[in-house]
Description:
Elements: E1 6-12, E2 26-27, E3 30-31, H1 32-42, E4 48-53, H2 56-64, E5 69-71, H3 79-87, E6 94-97, H4 107-115, E7 124-130, H5 134-137, E8 144-147, E9 153-157, E10 174-183, H6 184-192, H7 197-202, H8 207-211, E11 216-220, H9 231-242
Parallel strand pairs: 1-4, 1-6, 4-5, 7-11
Antiparallel strand pairs: 2-3, 6-10, 7-10, 8-9, 8-10
Amino acid sequence: MMKQKVIAVIPARYAATRFPAKLMKLLGDRPVIAHTYASVISSGLFDDVFVVTDSELIFDEIVSRGGKAIMSVAEHESGTDRIAEAVKDMEVDVIVNVQGDEPFMQKDPLEKIVALFCSDTVQVGSLMRKFASEKEARNPNAVKVVTNKNGKALYFSRSVIPYKRDEKMEVPYYLHIGVYAFRKKALLEFTGWPPSLLEQTEKLEQLRFLDNGMDIYMAETDYETVAIDTPEDLEKALALVNR
């Protein structure tokens, strides 16, 4: 296989619903988004790394530190749509979408998702890790995924899947980690499809791929995400930085 051009794109919306302006909150000496950008750059895996944002504040923050940022032109429903707009005219093979609120993103999970694309058959990839407990899996905010023996996602749900008909059975539950990678064609196709019924029911946009017959291949990692969704998450992240 010829060498592929692989880039990372970090969608960065300013007005987050649960925690407005969270990406510009200070985490030690710099904002959350600057930490995320630095973490992705330091992995050394990508031919280029961009932040794509609707905010001049975020744009200026990244550029002033010598990073690369792109201003979104249109309003977008999701980070995936924001990325598609940014890359549509780029010469690129694989795009990795890293959430802007993941300041401690590590090399290992990114390496695993990029490795999926050594196979020509993979159009979309994502990450999962085993839940530590069944109790943790019962949280509807933690998205579950089940795969077949080849690592293809069968379904994603906020419900606990699979359902244990026999309580005595030992079964692993897997958390879906929201880092995605796409071939450019698959990403642009996604944005042309209307939101599907399953997607709207579960409020999970990855179900649009499955509904349209496009496989999502999963790589397993033990990476523990530290996403900044609430002011409490920011406090926890600050404790990690200080430590």
